[in-house]
Amino acid sequence: MRPADLLAPTASARQRPRVVVASDKFKGTLTSAEVAAAVTSGVRRVHPDAIVDAVPVADGGDGTLAAAVAAGFDLVPVTVSGPTGEPVRSGFARRGEVAVVELADASGLIRLPGGIPAPMTATSYGTGELIAAAIDAGCTRVILGVGGSASTEGGAGLVRALGARLYDANGAELTEGGAALSALATVELTELTERLAGVEVVVACDVDNPLTGPSGAAATYGPQKGASPAQVEELDTALTNWADLVARARREPAGAAADLRHAPGAGAAGGVGFAALALLGAQLRPGIELVLDLVGFHQQLAGADLVVTGEGALDEQTLHGKAVAGVAAAAAEAGIPVVAVCGTNRLDVARLEQAGVLAAYALTDLEPDVRRCIADPVPLLRQLGEQLAADHLPRSTMTTTERGAV
């Protein structure tokens, strides 16, 4: 259906129920597009004449690239260095001069060979290579989703791929990874500054952690990436040295470095947030808000009777910057009711209402065995689509003749 049709539907179309399915992925099970396809199939079993529009979304982590492509961006394949140096086939999404880069797809936990953590040596270098490729292709606005990183190195690898030079006290270039930053003595930014001239960077960021300290990148997220308590301490010390030397290279006045390393979001993605703020001149925005703007979600709401959102598990994290909460907030502003589909639901009715969700439909409501839900979720999702359509969509008043003309 053309956008103009949504804004000015025909007499027949106005009597057909319209649903917007804007779900995040079911992590490790289904992509956003697969969730939408299954729900759509279920809705149409109840309302064969329903207009169902799929708008895959993400919160800035893995799935952001796919959401951009689904929204009409072109995928530009690029082979880059993975988090431990092995080549990985990734890419960026492009529309005009705008590029979308997903850190998780190049430098994320999902790219660790064999899933084996590398907390001291993992790097964000490949993400920097993607940004460089986008700039070389003529893009002047880069939207960077930073969720799901495998490294804790302050974005040092990312900026190196863009031209920054990092040296130890002997003038040798540093190796990759957070641990190496303890030996950092000099940061050279000339080439990086030239490369980024005229380029706007916007980071999808949903955390407010600082770079260093007890709630910093190493302390908060290092253990999730395989770091031991001793390694967390070592990484935090290394990140402190990194922040000090970045401030010196930027010739910042006394105190400015301390303020920046403790800026909300500086600790995102193992400190990539800090590098983005300090060296890329980036703006940090909530991930789901950025993605909703990117995919034109607000425009898609025109004329909708119901919005279906979802993710693998509805829990307390859902209420804090995740895709479901963002979709529900945007739909509420437009006065459109929202329901959610999920694998499991850990929120009671009051918490769901707080998030703006009328009802949640979980796979485990139909099949208590979680393993079966994971192994074969599509038939269950179709059933949930039928249930929510029966519960929340108005019955069509179209005549038989009108249905035949659709």
UniProtKB/TrEMBL annotation:
NCBIfam families: glycerate kinase (TIGR00045). Belongs to the glycerate kinase type-1 family. Keywords: Kinase, Transferase. This is Glycerate kinase. GO terms for biological process: organic acid phosphorylation. SUPFAM superfamilies: Glycerate kinase I. It comes from Kribbella antiqua. The keyword Zinc does not apply. GO terms for molecular function: glycerate kinase activity. Pfam families: Gly_kinase. PANTHER family: GLYCERATE KINASE. It comes from the Bacteria.
